[in-house]
Amino acid sequence: MSKKHGKHIAIYGKGGIGKSTTTSNISAALAEAGYRVIQIGCDPKSDSTTILRGGNDLPTVLDTLREKSKVKIEDVSAVGFGGVLCIEAGGPVPGVGCAGRGINAAVELLQELRLFEEYKPDFVLYDVLGDVVCGGFAVPIRDGIADRAFVVTSSDFMAIFAANNLFKAINKYAPSGGARLGGVIANSIQAPYAQSLIDDFTQQTGTSVVGYVPRSFTVSQSELYGQTVIEAVPKSEQADVYRNLARFIDENEDSVIPKPLNGPELKRWARTWGDRIFEVESGVVHNMESI
Amino acid sequence: MAHHIEGSRNSCALHGALQVIEAIEGAVPVIHSTAGCGAQHFLGVNRLNAGSDSFGGPPVASSNISEKHVVFGGSSRLREQLKNTVKIVEGDLYFIVTGCSTEMVGDDIPAMNKEGRDQDFQVIYANTPGFRGDVHQGYQLAVKALIEQLPTLGKAVPPKVEGLVNILGIIPHQDPFWAGNLEELGRLLEGIGLKANLLFGYDQGVSAWQKLPDAALNVVLSVWGEAPALLLEERYNTPWLALEGLPVGSAAGAFLRQVTERLQLDAHRTELFIESEEKRLNRYLASLADTYYRAGFQREFALIGESAQVVGVSEFLTRTLGLLPRTLIITDNPPEESREALILRLTTLLEGAGTELFFSEDHGEITDLVRNSGAEVVLGSALEEGVAAELGAAFLQLSFPLSDRVVLNRSYAGYRGAATLLEELGSAILSHSYQSRRILQESY
Q1: Nearest CA distance, B72 vs chain A (angstrom)
Q2: Homologous superfamily assigned to B164-267
Q3: pLDDT tens digit sequence for A6-19
Q4: Contact state of A97 with B73 under an 8 Å Cβ cutoff
Q5: Which ipTM value was assigned to this complex?
Q6: DSSP result, A218-287
Q7: Structural domain range at position A33
């Protein structure tokens, strides 16, 4: 692997959890701070960078590869908000082909095209789909690609489950040079217990939360306009939340190899939280706690 | 624990299926995989079968998929390949077989097969990725597809034949003498008034496979024929007779008696036929007697081959010819339950002889076993040539891969096959004695 250009960050998390929104806002915040940023969407849905480039069409790497024998970076990239270079890996239609191999092929092609040497980015953000279901989806955290991975999660059990799976993958690849975990981004914080639940999960797994992103109307509205919060409502509190996240990623290089919970441990842990939430909702008082 | 296998003689499931298709006249294989799968089949299997090769060798139709077919799915490439194949290669049956990559991706083969059918192509398919098993499982997968899918093609059904017997369990090429062995077994069954359905080789086309359900009996010559026999029993209620090994020499008589009993045939007729065959073989044995004693045929031997061959040949060499089995190595990796049956079967042969029986497909391990056996005669594949020379042993190639002879319809089964085996083993021993004497004379 040739010398690395910039910091390469992979962002994972369960489908629909807000990865692309979070990633795009971090990219926008980094760009706003004056950095050269590339955001690569690693998802066959190819909608990772939509809100960075006003919803315009962008041919994906794999679609272009399918139609042309020779692909140029200009064919598959668009410059979005703040100069962020947007790329979508693309992939097959649902139910056909192998999306995992697609990610592998797209990342290989971008390396062959000397994207990083030519563009000289300060940051490259890989927005990777859903759960790490097979080898292909672990490509960005394998040796020589991303240095650090962040996971976006809400307090929903299935999101925690997906985060735990990513921890397993990092645990497997990190010792042989793969990415380590930068931290957990707690997203859509709304329920009163959400923050402590995610905090507890990170404690159990030897990881930490790098930022709490509250559930926000501003985000939804900005998305409807095809923009990031940084672009649409730069003075909002929510924009500052993302700016803080970006600053953390920029200034803090700490990373860990997480200690994922195994199946029964995770279920046990979830059950204790189930009990706690039930007690909170039904007002159970333990041992004169209220006195 | 996982271990490596050096120089395996068992190719993969895709190749097993191709070997089935290529041995059926008028059947055209269409590979849906990367280009190497077909090329490897040619280099690793066809090239090692001098004279029993399907014509044309490498130009097997193949979709030769590339990365874009892996990422986006390769079904459309298969659709195109099937259409092109039907246009270019004339055949009675087109048979789609798949390799590892297309199965990993999950290409919808049944849908492409159905599309072919809708265009009136005579097409069937089998999912045969190499990771499903070796050449033996490939044989089973292809035969299963033929049993299940041929009747759905709407082909005109050939007239029913009385006293038909299907022969199952011989894998073309994996048994280098498959064509000759089938012909000899067919001749024997016809000798007792039956009609053999050989399924592979000369004049064995798709119609032979259409006749499968009509058989009065399925004869199973190796453990690999059991799954197809069970399927035919389930579908058509056909009884089956399992032999575990090729009947060589007098064992052929016992085989014919079993068939006679199962089908309640005229026992007198069978005995007359066996008698005439035995007489002829005995005549050959008698005329060999002088040479047998002069050249010292009664030697210790090591035999390396597929289970059916090891059973048939070792029983003949031991019981009829009086050779001494030192080491028997079964290379076709039979399933655990079949191993027990094989051990049981060969135990009576081994008792008192200090014979050792091994199961291995590892070339290194096999070489060590043969080397340590101290055998005076080695019967195995081309891979055992080196260790036979090391031992200074007489050497005869009889299992896959075979490199030193052209095989057209040579057989090592039945009565005629026993005579051929006598000729060839005898020649190997004589030539070995002659070479040894010459080396001895030259050294003085």
Answers
A1: 4
A2: Nitrogenase molybdenum iron protein domain (3.40.50.1980)
A3: 999 999 999 889 99
A4: yes
A5: 0.77
A6: HHHHHHHTT--HHHHSTTSHHHHHHHHHHHHHHH----B------HHHHHHHHHHHHHHHHHHHHT---T
A7: 7-260
